Amino acid sequence: MKVLVLNGPNLNMLGIREPALYGKGTYNDLVIFIREAAKELDLDVEIFQSNCEGELVTAIQNALGKFDGIVINAAAYTHTSVAILDALKAVGLPTAEVHLTDINKREQFRRLSYVGMYAQKTVCGKGFDGYRECLQWLAVGGSK
Ligand code: CA2
Known about the structure:
alpha/beta, 5 strands, 18% strand
């Protein structure tokens, strides 16, 4: 099973700033963590990070016919991007939304998730472990 893991803007800054909020682990640590989790679950994983909305949209479109599922932390685009929502809907792959922090316990504007309007599974507030939970959900069939 092939899974595309997408990470949105500023996640490449992990471990560099705001460790109290996002943890001490760097983006590279997150990539290693995801690869390890995928290996344990016998998943073939590709990981892509971009600060550009259009690049994330294109990556989602290109997943069609190539991947069996998507794990996405759209970061700030979670709360703004109808384009990412439309791309996820267009492609129609099983999708899990992940956030390092609990977006429901932060500022009001973070409670709205466009990604969550399509994603069949959401995991927030569990740090890196949330990615493993999303991968596991896909590995067992991606149903609610
Ligand atoms: O909790 C999450 O995973 C978020 O998707 C992270 C986004 C935020 O906009 C979402 O509301 C929730 C922000 C990612 C920025 O990451 C940084 C890491 C280090 C330093 C600064 C930003």
